[in-house]
Design a protein that fits this description.
With about 475 residues, this protein is mostly helical. Helices cover about 45% and strands about 5% of the residues. The strands form five sheets. Strands 1-2 form a two-stranded antiparallel sheet. A two-stranded antiparallel sheet has the order 3-10. Strands 4-5 form a two-stranded antiparallel ribbon.
Length: about 475
């Protein structure tokens, strides 16, 4: 480059590096320098050959405890030291031995699998040990193994104490690692983690706006769940997180600059998750909104009554056909629902979605359907006969049904914590957790603590037994359809 900012010139007294940089040294290296990653492994440094083996044993004990999520035994250390000795005999010396030891730890089934022994009685669940309970708790809240404090408490058999467990849950939810509940639980439950699947044809929408939606929803969910707020604020929170670009999309004044900041909302249509661009985009198509997707999402994710999937071979395409005059999505749905077979499901699904029709597929507020050149009608009647108009009345309707949203959140939390579907026999526990949390308006920490204290979380169920084949002569008679 020419001019004062190129060609190896200077800015003030600082030389400009045009194409390369050359570094000399260190001139007398004494092994690898310490960094954060090595410090987690090398909890000691031998000063001479006599200190190498005791140090390696200390590393094996420390690393094994962390990786195996339990106190290691002498047998564990002895087994790992065989790999250290094998590597130590190589030209790399002590570091080579530790490399082999680390490889052995990371290849061990104790690290790769979370094993829980089954009940000695195959027909009964078994109470988890404190060590097993600590591991299940850590993977629930952090999606990783327990830290030293949790392992020590589990080893001392103190996690069975309700006060100790409560303190640990509160500590862990304040830890940055708890953000995995936003990434792996909340976004997956709400199906808002794959916004790239919808690509609006609107010329004003781009990848940067999609990134704004992703940032906003992550910050918003964290502000509710990880600040120990009521889960009802997922619906009625009067704040969000905006930068200037997203604020323009939402028509929120007074926000400038690319950085995100917490903003108090005055427009009730934007309150809670129903006013968030991530939700409005994910429940749309590239060329239009979808009251069907939005209504189904509200029923499934918030109310907890997922609609049945459409029957096979049913035409669900509501796009305007070539040569036809564009009409509103609402008008096309009304034609679709004239078929009684279609109305059986759409009469339940469509109304909540129609209440959100003022939002286009990129989250902007509109009063006119630009393609159809017709006004937006957000009036709707639920299958129960309740009339409503717009997102505010939809939100208030969901809130009026008290514990529906907290029950949905608790059921999803339990499913995530247990890594299995919630069955009918789990529901009494779910309802009890919600009832107990009602006094605090369903704070997230109370729901988490309820899950952690539940029998389902603290027990390992019996193994599923395969049904034995019944001899044909003893098989029950089965009536065949005529």
């Amino acid at each position: 480059f020419g001019g004062p900012f190129g060609g190896g010139g200077r800015v003030s007294t600082v030389p400009i590096i045009q194409t390369a940089i050359e570094i000399e040294g260190p001139f007398s290296p004494q092994g690898l320098s310490m960094n954060d990653s090595r410090a987690k492994i090398f909890v000691c440094q031998p000063k001479n050959a006599a200190e190498e083996k005791p140090c390696a044993e200390k590393i094996a004990h420390h690393l094994g405890t962390q990786a195996f999520r339990r106190p290691v035994t002498d047998a564990d250390v002895k087994s790992l030291m065989k790999f250290y000795e094998l590597g130590r005999a190589d030209t790399g010396g002590f570091d080579a031995g530790i490399t082999e030891l680390v490889t052995a730890v990371l290849s061990s089934p104790d690290f790769l699998y979370r094993s829980i022994s089954t009940s000695p009685r195959p027909d009964e669940p078994r109470l988890l040990s404190d060590v097993e309970l600590g591991t299940r708790l850590s993977f629930f809240l952090w999606n990783t193994g327990p830290d030293e404090e949790l392992i020590n408490l589990a080893t001392a058999k103190k996690l069975s104490d309700p006060a100790v467990m409560k303190a640990q849950v509160e500590r862990m939810l304040k830890d940055p690692r708890a953000n995995t509940l936003v990434e792996n639980f909340a976004l997956a439950w709400l199906n808002l983690d794959e916004l790239e699947k919808v690509d609006p044809i609107d010329g004003g929408f781009n990848a940067a706006m999609r990134g704004n939606f992703e940032t906003e929803i992550r910050l918003f969910l964290a502000s509710v769940l990880l600040e120990n707020r009521s889960v009802m604020e997922l619906l009625d929170a009067d704040w969000t997180f905006l930068n200037e670009s997203l604020a323009r999309q939402y028509e929120v004044p007074g926000v400038y600059g690319p950085q995100f900041r917490r903003v108090k909302l005055t427009n009730e249509n934007r309150f809670g998750i129903l006013g968030k661009g991530a939700f409005l985009l994910r429940t749309s198509y590239g060329d239009r909104t979808s009251p069907v997707l939005r209504g189904g999402w509200v029923l499934d994710k918030l109310i907890g009554t997922p609609p049945a999937p459409p029957p096979p071979n049913v035409n669900t395409d509501l796009a305007v056909k070539d040569g036809e005059r564009p009409t509103t999505v609402r008008a096309r749905l009304e034609v679709h629902r004239k078929n009684p077979n279609c109305n059986a499901c759409h009469g339940l699904i469509d109304p909540p979605g129609l209440a959100l029709e003022n939002f286009d597929n990129t989250g902007r507020w509109r009063t006119v359907d630009a393609a159809a050149r017709a006004p937006i009608d957000a009036n709707t009647v639920l299958s129960s006969g309740v009339k409503m108009n717009g997102p505010v009345e939809l939100r208030r309707y969901i809130e009026s049904h008290g514990d529906q949203l907290p029950t949905t959140v608790t059921r999803r939390l339990m499913m995530y914590a247990l890594n299995r579907e919630v069955e009918y026999f789990d529901m009494p526990q779910v309802r009890q957790i919600v009832k107990t949390a009602e006094a605090g308006r369903y704070r997230f920490n109370d729901l988490v603590l309820g899950v952690v204290n539940s029998d389902a979380f603290r027990h390992q169920g019996p193994e599923e037994t395969k049904p034995q084949a019944t001899p044909a002569s003893k098989a029950p008679a089965v009536a065949k359809n005529p």
